[in-house]
Amino acid sequence: MTLVSLKEILEPAREQKYAVGNFNVLSIQMIKAVIDAAEEEKSPVILAFGDAHSDRISFDIIFPLMVKIAKKAKVPVTVHLDHGKSFSSVISALRYGASGIMYDGSSLSYEKNVQNTREICKIAHALGISVEAEIGHVAMEEGNPDGDAQIEDDLIYTNPEEAVSFIEETHVDALAISIGTAHGICLEKPKLDFDLLQEINRLSEVPLVLHGGSGVSDNDFKKAIKNGISKINFFSRTSNAVAEAVKQKLNNINGEVYYQDIDPVVYKTYKENVKEKIRVFGSNNMIF
After folding, report:
1. Where are the beta strands (DSSP E) in 116-185?
2. For the stretch 98-109, what's the b/e string if a residue is b when 16 or more beta carbons lie within 10 angstroms of its beta carbon?
3. What is the pLDDT of residues 188-243, one digit of tens each?
4. CA distances from 62 to 44, 65, 243 (A)
5. Do 186 and 158 touch, CB atoms closer than 8 A?
6. CB 277 within 8 A of CB 239
7. Cα separation, 260 vs 33, whole angstroms
8. What is the model's pTM?
9. What's the N-to-C CA distance of the chain in angstroms?
C-alpha cells in the first residue's frame, strides 16, 4: 500500500457503499495519528491540508512531510489539498507531491467555477492527479471554527441538473455537494436533504463528497453514505477535542510545564477520534 490518487481511493468506496474519511492535519503528531489510526482499522484514508491553514505552515514543508509518511503506510493514502482557493495554491500542492486536489470555486459564479475547474483538471490529469470540486455552497468558510452563523444564511443547495452539467463540462473526478451541512462547529443541528442527495447520486457519474460534517449525527452519516456519499471531511470537531484534551492535561500538571508534555495528548486524542469516525464511515476492515 502506498500513495494513491483520490480517484483510486474513492471508486471502491462508491462501489462498496462506504466513505473514506478526509482528515486535515497541522502537525507531524496529527499526520502520524491519522496514518496509525487507518493502519489499525485497516482502512484507506485521505490525509489533507487545508489552504485556509497555510498561514500556519507552508506547503513546501507540510506536503513533502505528508507524502513521505504516506508512502510508508500499510494502507492506501491520498495526500490531498483541501479547499484550494487559487491556481497558485493548486500548483504549489501539485509541485510538492499532492495526489489529490480539491479546488473550491463554489463562491464564484457557475460559469467561472466551471472555467477554473476545467483548467485545473487539465493540469492535474496530465500529471495523473485527481480533482475534487464543489458546486453549491456549504455554509461558513473553511477554517472558521466559530460555528455561530445560522446555516440557512449562507447555504446554497446543489442543483442536480447543474451538478451533471458541471461534471460533464469540467471532467472532475469527485464532486462536493451542498445538502444542508456547514463548516465549523455548528450551534444548530444540520438538516440533511436526503431526497436531494439521492437525486444527485442517481445522476452523478463521479463519487460525491460531504463537507461540514462536525454537526452531523452518526446515523445521518450512515444514511448519507447509503445514499451516495463516498468521501467525508471531518476536522473541526476533532480539532476541538484535541484542544480540550490539551487544556485538561495542562490544568492537571503541578509544577513546571513543557511543550513536549502536550505532544502525546495531541497524538492520542486525534488518533482516537479518527478511528471512531473510520468505523462510522464503514471503511474499517476494507484493506486486507
Report:
1. 130-135, 174-177
2. bbbbbbbbbeee
3. 567 899 999 999 999 999 999 999 887 899 999 999 999 999 999 988 888 899 89
4. 20, 5, 21
5. no
6. no
7. 16
8. 0.91
9. 10
DSSP result, 135-167:
ESB-BS-TT-----S-GGGG-BPPPHHHHHHHH
51 catalytic? Reply is no
Helix (H) or strand (E) holding 20: strand 20-24
For the chain, list the domains and their CATH numbers: 6-281 (3.20.20.70)
Query: Could you tell me the three cell numbers for 110?
Result: 457557475
Strand-pair category, 20-24 with 208-210: unpaired
Helix (H, G, I), strand (E, B) or coil at 103: strand
Q: How far apart are CA 286 and CA 41, in angstroms?
A: 9
C-alpha closest to that of 18 among 208, 273, 226, 218 = 226
Phi, psi of 175 (to 5 degrees): -130, 120
User: CB 95: neighbour CB atoms within 10 A?
Assistant: 12
- Among residues 82, 104, 173, 220, the one annotated as catalytic is 82
CA dihedral 13, 14, 20, 22 (to 10 degrees): 140
Q: Report the run of H or E that residue 200 belongs to, with start and end.
A: helix 194-203
Q: What whole-number distance in Å separates Cα of residue 153 and Cα of residue 286?
A: 39
Other beta carbons within 10 angstroms of residue 147's beta carbon come to 21
Most confident of 120-129, 208-217, 251-260: 120-129
- Cell matching residue 261: 508534555
Question: Assign residue 136 a region: left if phi > 0, alpha if psi is -120 to 50, beta otherwise?
Answer: left
